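tool_call: predict_structure(chain=1)
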Amino acid sequence: MNKLIHANFSRLWKSKIFWIGLILTNLLAIWILADRIHFKMISGYQLSSDDMIFSGTITLPFVAAVVISIFIGTEYSDGTIRNKLIAGHSRHSIYFANLITSTAAVFIIYTSYLLIIVCAGIPLVGNFAAPIKILLANFIINFVALASLSAILLLLCMLIPSKSIAAVSSLILVLIVFFSTMISVQRLEAPEYYEGYTWLDEESGMIEQDEEPHKNLSYLPEGSLKRKILETWVNISPIGQIYQYGNIQSQTSVPKDLPKPLLYSFGIITVTLIFGIIQFRRQNLK
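tool_result:
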């Protein structure tokens, strides 16, 4: 196992796609910093660095999809996996070593983003407004959610030998999860009633006002089956966890249900690991 992990990291440091993902993520951090500094200069407001953490975290799944799919796909195209089997390594050891490497690659990219935001954001933009407990809870949830996403992507890529198909499939999967999660969040956050509104009557030139609240037909009542399904999906989805707990500005205290997203993420990692190993053992490697 140690030899497999060592070999994987040796390939990772030489992987162009890993360094491209790392550089692009760092450039994103620099761009977000520059935007916040510019806004601070023209507005004169005292800002905090809290929102910049969330801005990068929510985009990282797309970088992870490309990096993991190309990294694992190269193992198939170069015959690396077949050579590992010939050398006597078991399939479950190969899968587990790939999981560790893929997760570590995502962690390294995410940590580099955080370091830029923290080291440059605090002196140039402003300190974090959130207490240290909330920041630590945020980082823990984000790291574990990204680990579960890495496990899902690895499962997909280990079962698809074609590098190009794996890359496209991974991006499509992340897009589906992202938009389905955002749509679900939008439905769950929809108010039961819309407030009254004002408008201009073009014929009379008078401003009309409707003070009566209007029923929102898209509202999902508390306890309804559809609402429970959407809540469950948002809670389980790694992107849903990042959205709910990753925005430090929306947190006033450490979430009381902190164990819940962690348990969901560890459950995803466990299920995908077991299922992936079983399927990988059955796979015919030519």
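agent: Residues 85 and 267 are 29 Å apart (CA to CA). Proceeding to next step.
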